[in-house]
Amino acid sequence: MNRDKLIRELRAVVGDEYVLVEKEDVIVYEQDGSIMQAMPEIVVLPGSAEEVAAVVRAAKQANVPIVPRGSGTGLAGGAVPAEGGVVISLARMNRILELDLRNRLAVVEPGVINQDVTKAVAADGFFYAPDPSSQAACSIGGNIANNSGGPHTLAYGVTTNHVLGVEVVLDDGRVVWLGGQVPDCAGYDLCGAFVGSEGTVGIVTKAVLHLMRSRESVRTLLAIFDRMDAATQTVVDITAAGIVPAALEMMDRLTIEAVETGAPVGYPRDADAVLLVELEGVREFTERGAREVHEICMHHGARQVRVAQDDAERLRLWKGRKGAFGALGTLAPNYYVQDGVVPRSRLPEIMRQIATISARYHLRIANVFHAGDGNLHPNILFDMRTPGELDKVIAAGEDILRACVAVGGSITGEHGIGLEKKAYIGLLFSDADLNAMAKVRKAFDPDGRFNPAKMFPTPITCAEMRRAPAKIPAGLWI
Amino acid sequence: MALSRALLARLKEIVGPVYVLTRPEDVVVYEQDAFLVAHALPDIVVLPGSAAEVAGVVRAAHEANVPLVVRGAGTGLNGGSIPIAGGVMLVLTRMNRILEIDPRNRLAVVEPGVVNADLTAAAARHGLFYAPDPGSQSVSTIGGNVGNNAGGPHCLSYGVTGNHVLAMEIALASGGMTWVGGRSVDPPGYDLCGVMVGSEGTLAVVTAVVVRLLRKAEAARTLLAAFETIDDASQTVSEIIAAGIVPTAMEMMDGVVMAAVEAAIHAGYPADAGAVLLIEVEGLPDSLPRQMERIETICRAHTPRMLRTAASEQERLLLWKGRKEGAGALGRLAPSYYLHDGVVPRTRLPEVMRKVVEIGKAHHLRIGNLFHAGDGNLHPIILFNPREPGIMDKVVRAGEEILHACVEAGGTITGEHGVGIEKREYMRWMFSDADLLAMQRVKRAFDPSGVMNPGKLLPLGTRPDVTIKPVMTAGMWT
């Protein structure tokens, strides 16, 4: 490719100041929230859908990879430019274009920060449901690419359940609408196929989001258990009793230790597991649901069940959970957060297996996760400076994912495939299944220019990508 | 179309000679579905008994380059299963086994020919139910529901078929079987399961479906509210939704339909009222009275003639009987009718309903309305006498004008019946050429030779090549 010609073209499209080419500028974009790195050659920050389309056309003509990026909080390496090329940062496109509360929808640009959507409508009694832990920083475009979830996904579903339509720039620079302003549009559900496609199909330039009405009443309980098994069984029984809490989160002994060392909230250090249960809805439901959850916890021998009496106490109960990841730093210099899913009925068994894997590799694994969804987040603690340790960590992570798949689960609940898990996607899908996906990829991106080397099980090209950094980035979220 | 002996022999070999029909008196049964204004004869009808047989038939048709049309119970309203280009019709009614019900993980695995209501009956033993409840649920099949992304009265709170299908096994045109989706929610990769739902047999043939089952609500309350005018009823719907209340169902029936229903079913509707709303709320027994009170307060602001809450389960079922069997009663009003399906944002409901009345007047046609008001999903029913010369043109034109009014108000051309041949040219009102091209890309990726249900869903740019033959018939569903 003629690099200088491409740079000139891009500058003509977005303006000189929004095309970055110097190493010290583009290095900021070499990494996301994962442990992988690769340098882009050019970073472009377009300000409109038309500019995105023109950038895509120029990059296609120059035959270079195109990697879209939101806030770079992704945990699977989806925004890492594995084959170099042009990174399109959508951070400037951060306007909320329309709020239509009577029809409960918002039209936003992809760079809008997740939390800003809820902030814009909270005073009117609405909220945007998907709440990834990174919600103060991550963008709606990134959430769409990864089909993000969060603690309250248990009751409200993931991103795809809240996106009605998207405006997308395709590989030839054409701008199309997939879906629309009403749910379940006629024709193929391409909006659904686009959500979670990790930048391999096109670039979203506008999204129509579904807003939900704020709940009348919220109740939060914290239950402390002496045995992990009793806690997981409690989760199974809450679900089986037909109660769907808004959130049902679990932390294990190691996590409790980290929280109490790093940012103490008063969990007993000798407890084996803590469950955080939140119920939302009409008063009658939350009151009765809280009572029933309390009973189920006690039935399984909970040492203690605390029910928040007011908002301040509610936030205190959540504080330990929200600060857990940061606190893991008190236990080890590095950690690798995995993301797997199991059917809820298999939760007790998989937690035992994780303990076995931890013992086998002599690696400590801290668990803090969305138990109600069966969405695990085992955090493998390690020290990058110990030679050979990272290999062990990756092997242990793979064993955990294999165990999840073996009980009928999946290799990712909400973080996506990206670079991190493309080698494992074969655990879940047969060649025929992957072939069906490849057909769609090819239909939309015949040259494979959109976010190459992601999602599909191609061999990892750069050896250093797998274990690049000498340091793990500070802010990791789940 | 002349079909080769070789193909016929091959099909007989795959499914057995008894399950291959070619005689005119046998295949004539399959010339039509519930889209009563068109019909076309298939050349061969095949009734496979297993997924492997389906795959064999699909491959044979693909290799012979002969159109392949899939059919469930033939209750579709858009002509989707009419073989307008002749060829092989694949009827899935023999594949009607429920393969598995897993109450702990709340899912069922079924063959495509399972009748919708049979699934709910089987799940009821575990206190569960399958939520999508099209009016045709006592006959329509899960495969057909999946093909058309079917809805129903209770979709207001539970969502349509797409929200309840977790995974499916499909036979591809290129030969071979594959699974899309997974048993755990939102598996990684492109959401091809979502793409298949609503694809109307134009991409692949479904051979097994994993559906989500829901826990039955503890209690239900049903309110019948009668109003002097459609306008009052529409305003009421708009305000209930705006107040943040989501009933499980909110159905409207106008005076035209009500007169027929009351004469046939005696459900206790006020036959001379302008419109009635049937509003149902579900949930915990404790929370229902308060919810009902809020709904009644809104109703009262619009001078209802009558508000009646069903006092017993028997009375509740009778109120529903009037709604569910309402369409059958229409035969009392006219020898034939054309049932339409459009959607509008709920804020525009009063205005579009006025427009529907105007269109009826302009064409001197009687139009009855019986529809899912809570969703903004209209079902204007154009009543007519097929023996009146030139009437069909008028009926089709009036229908077109109604759909156009829906789209102009920000709505869509179909809520739950699908596109089929009936509405494929109207797709242009909603989608730009670029949008449609994006759908074409997916179609070509899965069906490169174009044998899968040709002439459906996507516009050809010409009127459907079918015989228009109005018929009189009883059972139609909404």
Automatic annotation (TrEMBL), chain A:
This entry's Gene Ontology molecular function terms read: FAD binding; oxidoreductase activity
Sorted alphabetically, which keywords does the UniProt record give?
FAD, Flavoprotein, Oxidoreductase
Q: Does the keyword Oxidoreductase apply?
A: yes
Q: Record's SUPFAM superfamilies?
A: FAD-binding/transporter-associated domain-like, FAD-linked oxidases, C-terminal domain
Give every FAD-binding PCMH-type domain span. Answer: 36-214
Name the coenzymes or cofactors required.
FAD
- Gene3D superfamilies of this UniProt entry? 3.30.465.10, 3.30.70.2190, 3.30.70.2740, Uridine Diphospho-n-acetylenolpyruvylglucosamine Reductase, domain 2 (3.30.43.10), Vanillyl-alcohol Oxidase, Chain A, domain 4 (1.10.45.10)
User: Which PANTHER family did the record assign?
Assistant: GLYCOLATE OXIDASE SUBUNIT GLCD
Q: What's the protein name?
A: FAD-binding protein
Q: What organism does the record attribute this protein to?
A: Candidatus Segetimicrobium genomatis
Automatic annotation (TrEMBL), chain B:
| Record GO terms (molecular function) | FAD binding; oxidoreductase activity
* InterPro entries the record matches: FAD-bd_oxidored_4_C, FAD-bd_PCMH, FAD-bd_PCMH-like_sf, FAD-bd_PCMH_sub2, FAD-linked_Oxase-like_C, FAD-linked_OxidoTrans_Type4, Oxid_FAD_bind_N, Vanillyl_alc_oxidase_C-sub2
Species assigned in the record: Candidatus Segetimicrobium genomatis
Name the needed cofactors. Answer: FAD
The UniProt entry, under Gene3D superfamilies, shows: 3.30.465.10, 3.30.70.2740, Vanillyl-alcohol Oxidase, Chain A, domain 4 (1.10.45.10)
Q: Which UniProt keywords apply?
A: FAD, Flavoprotein, Oxidoreductase
| UniProt entry tagged with the keyword Flavoprotein | yes
- Source domain of life is Bacteria
Q: What is this protein called?
A: FAD-binding protein
Taxonomy of origin reads: Bacteria, Bacillati, Candidatus Sysuimicrobiota, Candidatus Sysuimicrobiia, Candidatus Sysuimicrobiales
Locate the FAD-binding PCMH-type domain: which residues?
38-216
Q: Pfam family example for this protein?
A: FAD_binding_4
Mind telling me which PROSITE patterns this protein's record contains? FAD_PCMH (PS51387)
Record keywords: Flavoprotein included? yes
